[in-house]
């Protein structure tokens, strides 16, 4: 029945959006994850930044949503929620595209 | 668990890119065969779920932070191939859009999380089934706990090998701490905290979501 699909979909979307709004809880710890330090943090730890690390750390420069903070929004909690919503939207878009590509070929 | 760029040598990145492209390719072929109407209703939601779950960092022993992945859960719900595709999509988006995990390191991150977790989960689960462990919840707990820790161990070994393999004038070229540091630093939080949290959540969420995932036709 089509209705069941719709109901399930709606409920899961509500759950996803509720989780998205709660994501700032993930910011309560400011400890960096092991092995995910920035160059500044590494310099503080070692006194230097390894040569190769410095070279390859910058190959990719798109930083509008760097680390789930949005560049033009100064409140980090709102930036984090917005990143969560953008991520969800992009994921749905990718699968929509994938569906389109895969059904067209048949 | 998302390795940034610069932490791994180009050689390491290339090796894992090759491995990941091969496995994801196979998974995609299998996934394509099993695709039906409900796949594209459920899979984006599963993908979005893992994405959101990975944003919840919590403090762990040793003064760092970590997060669960939700990947064992979607593996149980949708099978290993769909799970590989769903989590690979998440890791690509995290790397391209949010710089969570590097672009050069993407192949390695896909290998550690999107490939290793689903395959180990299913492998351990079938081993437990063969050894006649009938209690599904216990099976889910054990295989989730193990797969989460395997992913952490892979990350620890890949990072820890860098200063052993790649140095210049006695100084590390890429990641700076060797296995003696990376293994305990990754494994203690995962063995004590993250593996347990991931396993408990997977057990708790599996039954209600399993019925949810079934669409009456």
Automatic annotation (TrEMBL), chain A:
Membrane-spanning ranges: 12-29, 77-98
A Pfam family: PDGLE
Domain PDGLE: 12-101
Subcellular location: Cell membrane
Keywords: Cell membrane, Membrane, Transmembrane, Transmembrane helix
Domain of life: Bacteria
Name the UniProt record assigns to this protein: PDGLE domain-containing protein
Origin species: Anaerocellum danielii
Automatic annotation (TrEMBL), chain B:
Pfam hit, one: CbiM
Transmembrane segments: 12-29, 41-61, 73-97, 103-128, 140-166, 186-207
Gene that this sequence comes from: cbiM
Taxonomic classification: Bacteria, Bacillati, Bacillota, Bacillota incertae sedis, Caldicellulosiruptorales
Protein name from the UniProt record: Cobalt transporter CbiM
Subcellular location: Cell membrane
Protein's membrane topology: Multi-pass membrane protein
Leader peptide range in chain numbering: none
Keywords, ordered alphabetically: Cell membrane, Membrane, Transmembrane, Transmembrane helix, Transport
């Amino acid at each position: 029945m089509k209705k069941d699909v719709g109901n399930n979909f709606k409920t899961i979307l509500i759950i996803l959006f509720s989780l998205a709004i709660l994501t700032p809880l993930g910011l309560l710890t400011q400890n960096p994850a092991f092995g995910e330090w920035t160059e500044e943090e590494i310099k503080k730890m070692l006194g230097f930044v390894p040569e190769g690390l410095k070279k390859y750390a910058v190959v990719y420069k798109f930083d509008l949503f760097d680390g789930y903070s949005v560049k033009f929004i100064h409140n980090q909690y709102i930036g984090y929620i917005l990143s969560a919503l953008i991520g969800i939207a992009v994921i749905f878009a990718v699968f929509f595209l994938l569906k389109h590509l895969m059904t067209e070929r048949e | 668990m998302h390795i940034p760029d610069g932490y791994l040598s180009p050689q390491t990145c290339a090796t894992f890119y090759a491995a990941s492209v091969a496995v994801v390719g196979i998974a995609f072929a299998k996934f394509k065969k099993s695709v039906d109407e409900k796949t594209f209703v459920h899979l984006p939601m599963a993908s979005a779920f893992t994405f959101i779950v990975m944003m919840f960092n919590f403090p762990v022993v040793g003064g760092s932070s970590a997060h669960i992945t939700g990947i064992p859960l979607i593996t149980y719900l949708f099978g290993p191939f769909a799970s590989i595709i769903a989590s690979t999509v998440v890791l690509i988006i995290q790397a391209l859009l949010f710089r969570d995990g590097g672009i050069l390191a993407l192949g390695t991150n896909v290998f550690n999380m999107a490939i290793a977790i689903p395959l180990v989960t299913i492998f351990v689960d079938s081993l437990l089934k063969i050894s006649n462990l009938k209690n599904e919840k216990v099976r889910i707990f054990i295989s989730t706990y193990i797969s989460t820790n395997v992913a952490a161990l892979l990350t620890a070994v890949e990072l820890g090998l860098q200063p052993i393999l790649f140095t210049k004038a006695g100084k590390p070229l890429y990641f700076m701490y060797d296995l003696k540091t990376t293994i305990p630093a990754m494994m203690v939080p995962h063995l004590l905290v993250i593996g347990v949290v991931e396993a408990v959540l997977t057990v708790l969420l599996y039954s209600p979501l399993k019925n949810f995932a079934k669409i009456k036709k």
